[in-house]
Design brief:
2 helices; single chain; eight-stranded mixed beta sheet; about 140 residues; alpha+beta; two-stranded antiparallel ribbon
């Protein structure tokens, strides 16, 4: 599989329905996967993930977990070879926050990911999709 590196945005929101309305009705995005507290939106070719959190988005505690992922975070989507190379380097650097885990099994978003922390502690998700390219 040939896959260029892609990024996604993962945002904390207080009101998921209001956020989905804004990103779809105002900015023209298209929701493509939704759970109780999370909605994935395709926005001009970008993957936007909205996570409803208890705290204010401006004051959300760095690393608060929603669905097993630290929020807020940035993420990159890579092919299998690059995924393994980054995992190896992150393991050697001891920067892995959350070990590799398969998520969303059996859906269009079926993927394997792990999380690392940059030197300031900001979390990054490293993700590879199972069975092909992402649906956005």
């Amino acid at each position: 599989m040939s896959l260029e590196v892609r990024a996604h945005y993962s945002l904390c929101v207080q009101d998921l329905d209001a956020a989905v309305d804004f990103y779809t009705k105002v900015l023209g995005g298209a929701p493509f996967y939704r759970q109780r507290n999370t909605c994935h939106v395709s926005l001009e070719g970008h993957h936007l993930v909205l996570h409803q959190v208890r705290s204010s988005p401006r004051w959300a505690k760095l690393g608060e977990e929603v669905s097993g992922a630290p929020i807020p975070h940035f993420g990159i989507i890579v092919d299998d070879e690059r995924y393994e190379r980054i995992l190896s380097a992150a393991s050697a650097d001891r920067s892995v926050l959350i070990a590799p885990k398969r998520r969303r099994r059996g859906t269009a978003l079926d993927h394997i990911c792990f999380f690392v922390a940059d030197p300031s502690g900001y979390p990054w998700e490293i993700k590879r999709y199972v069975g092909g390219a992402p649906p956005f």
